[in-house]
Amino acid sequence: MTSTFRARTRRTVAVLLGTSLLAAGTVGTAVAGPGRPGQPDTRGTDDVLHRESFDSLADDLLPRAEDPGIEPGVVGWTHEAPKGWSVENGPALAGGGVEEWRGWSFTTRDFWTDAEDQMRYRFARAQDVVAVADSDEFADGAGTPGSYATTLASAPIKVKGRDEVELTFDSHYRGWAGQTGRVTVAFDGGAETELVRYDSETVTDDYDGALLNATETVPVDVPRGAKRAVFRWHFTADANSWYWAIDSVAVRAQLPRTSGDPTSAWVLSDIQGDPDDLGHALRDLDGVRPDADGLLMVGDIVASGSPDQWQDVDDVMTGAADVLPDQVVAGIGNHESYTGEPWEVLRDRFLDFAQRDRVWDEYLLEGSGGNVPVLVLGQEEARPPEVPMSREQVEWLRDRLAYWSDRDKQVLVMSHFPLGDTVSASWIPWYSDSYQYNDELTELLGAHPNAILFSGHTHYPFELGDWAVQRRTAGGHPDGFWTVNTGAVQVEWDARGESTSGIEEVVTRDVNRGLTVDVFDDRVVVEARDFGTVDAETPDNDVNEVVRSVTIPNPLAD
């Protein structure tokens, strides 16, 4: 395959740093070299005023009391709130119902799901102990009252001298007619102000994917002279309605306004042989970020890996050479190796396109906001598993994350498959263990709150609550790491079903979607964009809009 695209976009060559030499002629500025041994101490983040993960209750959990769906002796719940926090139940909850779910309870995801799945298991970002108000499970006992009302109150949080703070918490809410979830704040014992409201007017009852496995980020104005704030989570429902679970509550100082120009990137994945949509997406991205410093292609660039398919993509890239960023960074996906030919042949076609000699590597995006490191991970051998990896690749990632954490830099990590229990669909069994070292990689990233993983593969909607996830790990940094679903250039999928074990996936519609990423000194801003579908007969449209966005602070920034 003769490639005009590659010849025109080879801007730089690999450099030698430390002891590592990368392939000459890579697309982008490749870097390498050892980081400092050990992990950086990143726990003291000045902008965090209060954290509550509920994990301090892990040693105080009780065995099953009454829930008929849980085996006797299974440990996993308590009504005792963390120090400074409290629960107040409505008088109707005093008698009848199931003891474990009498008002806000503190439990584990596994214990809660053992009672019954019904989309509870989709709370995949939950870490260890979570807070749960569940009118449905409470109603599984005798003498259940006709109403359910319970309030969880935070400890008093010092806000003296601040004009504004930000409340964040992980949230998993399933609504029902007549059910309401509210978050309020009160300063110094005063009246409550409502910050968040879920009810039948704001939530689609029974199933609303935007509120499952989601994060709420709420700016809060602090009155002049206020010293302390108390946040409350109110849950009211008729008997046998649905539930609300929360985790990882944090109150932070509000980020200041951005200053200066960012280093920007375009992100696309799951093109899978749709050159018309790819060409249109590139033009739309140029329309909103014409000065972008990189294009990240996060796997499934072709449909099966044949030479003709690579040529089609190459032709699109050549045709867009006038708008392409200086650096193009490609990652390998599963669709790069579906022709039935030997793995080595298919891998080498990808490497020819990517212009490097291995599937994993490191790049620097050089832009107005400074240099931004990009770490590319990928499959090294034929399946199974979906992502076989050498120990060399894993230890290289450990080394490079430590290197950039030591320099207080946010680092972009791109890999086609999601890690288990991160973004949309990764709670489904066949997506949760794609990597040979899934658990090790998750724990490794969990120690680096400056790491942001971009993954594709699932084709799930940006509109879901777990489009972007702050994933925490046991023993990791309390902020965990962020991971973002890249969307897809070719078709969208979604899940259907109450039980995880019986889940079904369906193709919902044609789409053409991707991301823009803007990196500033103290944050990364990711916009999920819709470009609208096209074909050879209708090569253009007016769609180029932001579906949603997320701002990811750099907790290591000064």
UniProtKB/TrEMBL annotation:
It comes from the Bacteria. It holds the Pfam family Metallophos. Residues 266-461 form the Calcineurin-like phosphoesterase domain. Residues 28-47 are annotated as: Disordered. Residues 1-32 form the signal peptide. The keyword Signal applies. The keyword Protein biosynthesis does not apply. InterPro entries: Calcineurin-like_PHP, Metallo-depent_PP-like, STPP_CPPED1. Keywords: Signal. This is Calcineurin-like phosphoesterase domain-containing protein. The lineage of its organism: Bacteria, Bacillati, Actinomycetota, Actinomycetes, Micrococcales.
